[in-house]
# Entry
Amino acid sequence: MIEMTETGLPMASSSARQATPRVIAVSATPLFRLGVSAAFAEERGAELVATAETEIAVFDLLAAVDVDVVLIDGDLPGSDPVDLGTIIRQTHPDCGTVLLAKANDELLLRALAGGLSAFVPTSANARVLVATVRHAALAPTSFTAPELAAALSRRDRGRAILSPRELEVVRFLHAGLTIAEIASRMTVTESTVKTYVARLYDKLGVRNRAEALLATRDLLA
# Structure
């Protein structure tokens, strides 16, 4: 039987729990690094052994320091934090990667698809952060996030409210096709395509193409 912690994460065995995960924090923001350090000091369940301000610096550290988890700032200038986490997982398969960012379904689902170990919203408390880091160290291939079930539900609900033809239009919109080109692909009139577009705008609660693309980005996952 698997025991569960109060955070909803699997509880490690007594021997595994004795080990303290060694963590690198990647952020260009001093307050982010200080916040992580304070959270680890408060919970005493993880050890911050190094910090990096850039993508290049974190790989230099990974080559020089023995670590269990890389904690990545979701707002990392000059780098895509999800891509960085994916590369780390591919090149260092025993190392967990945790993305710490503002609550965002798109980022969470990208982290899941990218093979990261976890996503933690910045609104989470120190206990959740440390529990997630420990989970990532013990099971780097098992993705976890406090809002994972809710994000998946919202994505699936969005898919459900659009008809198959409206979803088809969404795919063409993401491909950059014009109304005329979509009409040609679907063998319908431009007026019919405009009707589909108007309906999906209404269902999604958006006002224009740009907002529709943003709102439906996860529907095509």
In short: The chain has two domains: 14-150, 162-220. Confidence is low (pLDDT under 50) at residues 1-18. Residues 171 and 220 are 7 Å apart (CA to CA). Strands lie at 22-26, 47-52, 69-73, 96-101, 118-121.
